[in-house]
Amino acid sequence: MSVVKINAITVPKDKQERFEERFKGRAGAVESTPGFEWFELLRPVEGTDQYLVYTRWESEEAYRVWESGQDFARAHEGGGSELAPAASNSSHLWSYEVIESAAPDRP
Fold it and tell me: Which of 63, 80, 21 is nearest to 54 (CA)?
């Protein structure tokens, strides 16, 4: 089954625009990584200042290979020193196994 990695990153209100810009400038190499399935950046709407960075992988091994490679380092440069750092030092990486999923029924 697939695995999901969610990075919960606290971003103060006054740095949110800058943080989002970092993701717009990301290398994009993750999309062609073997085993990569999905990416989403989730902006908080209310009740929190934590952004969620959601990635889905075909296996834990596929994620670990990417995490230990150069593409991971490039993706986390975040647009260079002009845009970094935007987030605080508060982040948490959560790991989940997908045990059930559904998609819309479409003919």
Answer: 63
* Domains of the chain: total: 1
Instruction: Report yes or no: 75 and 84 within 8 Å, Cβ to Cβ.
Output: no
Return d(Cα 66, Cα 71) in angstroms, integer: 7
Average pLDDT, the chain: 83
Which residue, among 49, 64, 50, has the nearest Cα to 3 in the 3D structure?
A: 64
What local confidence, expressed as pLDDT, does residue 82 receive? 47
Do 1 and 101 form a contact (C-beta atoms < 8 A)?
A: no
User: Which residues share a beta bridge with 55?
Assistant: 5, 39
Domain span holding position 61: 3-97
The reported pLDDT for the residue numbered 89 is 64
pTM (2 decimals)? 0.79
CATH label of the domain that carries residue 29? 3.30.70.100
